[in-house]
Design brief:
The chain is α/β, with parallel strands linked by helices and 343 residues long. It contains 12 helices and 14 strands. The strands form 3 sheets. The protein has a 7-stranded mixed sheet with strand order 3-2-4-5-7-6-12, with helices on both faces.
């Protein structure tokens, strides 16, 4: 942590807002735009007060056209600006997919380095807030497949700010997914517990000034000896609760970044424990867990004592009435841990 950087208790919304404010104050080339991010401050208030502080030309509302938002950002990036754009929900990112994958991701390669696309695409992702089919998706695996894009998913306020500042400073496009179930507090998937808050939580203590977190390094959320759990976003907290409930000694590896990926930390942990479980909320088939499973199998085959286990969302649209049957919650993850370690 930088010296003389005062620490303030923040939730993830405040941490993201702080990152944007710090970078906009430091760099006049950084600007923020998207649907309702200006006057309204964003649907989750992540951009609150930025327009008032930095002006209408630095933080402004865009038409309801995700393809147009990203296309404009690509042009701005090529011109030398550093736009941070918001796609209001990850479910709405598909109309912009061509601009992200065919233009932003390819610009440096296609121009032989003459142009870059230093753009950051923020978007809330995941379920757990009764958002239904069109407000709960987790499409992160789609972007890890595209060369030229970095894909980042924080699990806490401290990481959210440091990773977002790093994303804004990156010279290539970064897709920055924000698990909206974590905006106001860690969620362990236990519906019967009161909602937790980031207040007084260690990872809610966020420096007010500038700091960055490298994409290339995962965070060891919890250390153990019997099991490695690979996860990111909301699933970090579900994994912690499941480990506590089952009494298993586990490494919980918070990946932070899916691309680039900290393979060294993954391999070292699996070789130590001999068991590997992969958690994510996205649908199972072709989810990022499949890539993780392949990598663990390739690099740790002779150290695995049992087959790799994946606990994920189901291969269905995210249901509204049966949200908690879809969500990989505490009960399902705990049951899978017990079956893996005892079966």
């Amino acid at each position: 942590m930088p010296k003389n950087n005062n620490v303030k208790q923040m939730n993830m919304i405040q941490a993201i807002n702080s990152a944007l404010d710090v970078k906009m104050s430091q760099d006049p080339d950084v600007l923020v735009f998207g649907e309702d991010v200006g006057y309204f401050g964003g649907v989750f208030r992540c951009t609150a007060s930025l327009q008032e502080k930095h002006g209408l030309h630095r933080c402004f509302d865009a038409p309801i056209s995700e393809g147009g938002i990203i296309g404009t950002a690509v042009g701005m990036g090529a011109f030398g600006l550093r736009p941070v754009v918001e796609i209001q929900f990850a479910d709405y990112i598909y109309p912009a997919f061509d601009q992200i994958c065919s233009e932003a991701a390819r610009l440096r390669y296609r121009s032989n380095g003459d142009f870059t696309a230093p753009i950051t695409i923020r978007s809330p992702m995941g379920g757990g807030i009764h958002g239904g089919t069109s407000h709960s998706q987790s499409p992160e695996a789609l972007f890890t497949h595209i060369a030229g894009i970095k894909t980042i998913i924080p699990s806490n306020p401290y990481d959210a700010k440091g990773l977002l500042l790093k994303a804004i400073e990156d010279n290539d496009p970064v897709v920055f997914f924000e698990p909206k179930r974590l905006y106001n507090g860690p969620f362990d998937g236990d519906l019967d517990k009161p909602v937790d808050s980031w207040a007084n939580h260690e990872l809610g203590q966020v420096p007010e000034g500038h700091y960055t977190i490298d994409f290339e390094k995962a965070r060891m959320h919890k250390e153990g000896s019997e099991l490695t759990i690979l996860c990111y976003g909301t699933m970090v907290w579900v994994a912690e609760a499941a480990v506590r409930e089952t009494g298993v000694s586990a490494d919980i590896v918070d990946l932070r970044s899916l691309m680039p990926l900290d393979l060294d930390t993954i391999v070292a942990s699996v070789k130590k424990t001999g068991h590997c479980m992969i958690l994510h909320e996205a649908t199972r088939t072709s989810g990022f867990g499949a890539e993780l499973s392949a990598l663990v199998q390739e690099h740790c085959f002779y150290h695995l004592e049992k087959p790799i286990v994946r606990v994920t969302g189901w291969d269905t649209p995210y249901p509204h009435a049966l949200e908690w049957e879809y969500f990989p919650g505490l009960e399902r993850v705990s049951k899978s841990i017990v079956q893996m370690m005892e079966g």
